[in-house]
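Design job #97: recover the sequence.
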């Protein structure tokens, strides 16, 4: 890559949480436990959506894709964080660093677009229930599912390229636990103005626009729900959206704070720990396991596994 000619460093050092050194082992155990719970929870959802006929609806189709994305998203950063916490490998090569930066941001932006797509699905289900399944057929769902990945990996390409084109001639200690845009831009010897602007524009396109799209859809959903005469009908309609609302609020809240102002701050890595470890661990329980249909599917799968083990 021609841009690599701007580099006089051949590796970066990820500092991680060096300032709380005495809690490194505790943090390692907490992050490892969260990672394991996240993997088990999301893989369970993926298996349930793929195998259980009662979960063959557009909503669960998108939840299955969301779980797949979560597995990839946390795996882009957490294994390296665990290695840093046990002090085995803080160094990361330049090519690995930029690759991690692109993949992480691409997956994060894909998640933003996917959350907007999922509320569009709920909007159709509540506002147009009679034609919902005719519109959201399997072919249309597959087509819709492609767009978040396409947009996410395209939008993140530009701030990544502008960051790679910066001159890195001296400091190579990244004050973060993974390679991200702002910490690397802060290390550049050349002016990072263009890359900062590209980062902010990408954040507006991939974070702010989907966020306001979600708000717009929820405005129409709430207006429709309020028109439902029975209390049970209102409760049933809104219950299909409550989980999505919680997940989207947590993810967008932390992401907007970090990426709209690309200069970065000392607290960004703690916020990043929230949306790279804590929120993905909670999502399977918020999004699926509190759902009655998923609970029934999980019991059915458990009974099948029990019968297989006995036979």
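Job complete. Output follows.
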């Amino acid at each position: 890559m021609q841009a690599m000619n701007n580099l006089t460093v051949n590796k970066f050092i990820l500092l991680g949480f060096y300032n709380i050194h005495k809690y490194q082992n505790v943090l390692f155990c907490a992050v490892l436990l969260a990672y394991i719970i996240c993997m088990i929870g999301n893989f369970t959802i993926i298996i349930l959506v793929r195998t259980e006929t009662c979960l063959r609806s557009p909503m669960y189709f998108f939840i299955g894709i969301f779980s797949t994305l979560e597995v990839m998203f946390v795996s882009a950063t957490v294994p390296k964080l665990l290695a840093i916490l046990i002090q085995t490998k803080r160094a990361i090569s330049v090519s690995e660093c930029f690759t991690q930066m692109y993949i992480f941001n691409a997956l994060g932006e894909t998640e933003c677009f996917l959350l907007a797509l999922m509320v569009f699905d709920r909007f159709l289900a509540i506002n147009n229930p009679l034609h919902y399944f005719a519109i959201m057929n399997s072919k249309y769902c597959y087509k819709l599912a492609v767009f978040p990945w396409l947009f996410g990996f395209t939008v993140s390409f530009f701030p990544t390229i502008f960051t790679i084109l910066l001159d890195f001639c001296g400091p190579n200690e990244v004050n973060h636990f993974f390679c991200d845009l702002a910490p690397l831009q802060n290390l550049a010897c050349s002016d990072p103005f263009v890359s900062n602007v590209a980062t902010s524009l990408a954040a507006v396109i991939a974070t702010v626009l989907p966020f306001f799209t979600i708000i717009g859809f929820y405005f129409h959903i709430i207006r429709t729900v309020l028109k439902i005469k029975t209390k049970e009908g209102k409760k049933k309609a809104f219950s299909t959206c409550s989980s999505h609302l919680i997940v989207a609020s947590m993810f967008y809240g932390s992401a907007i704070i970090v990426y709209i102002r690309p200069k970065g701050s000392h607290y960004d890595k703690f916020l990043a720990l929230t949306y790279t470890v804590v929120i993905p661990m909670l999502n399977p329980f918020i999004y699926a396991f509190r759902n009655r249909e998923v609970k029934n599917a999980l019991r059915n799968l458990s009974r099948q596994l029990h019968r297989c083990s006995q036979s």
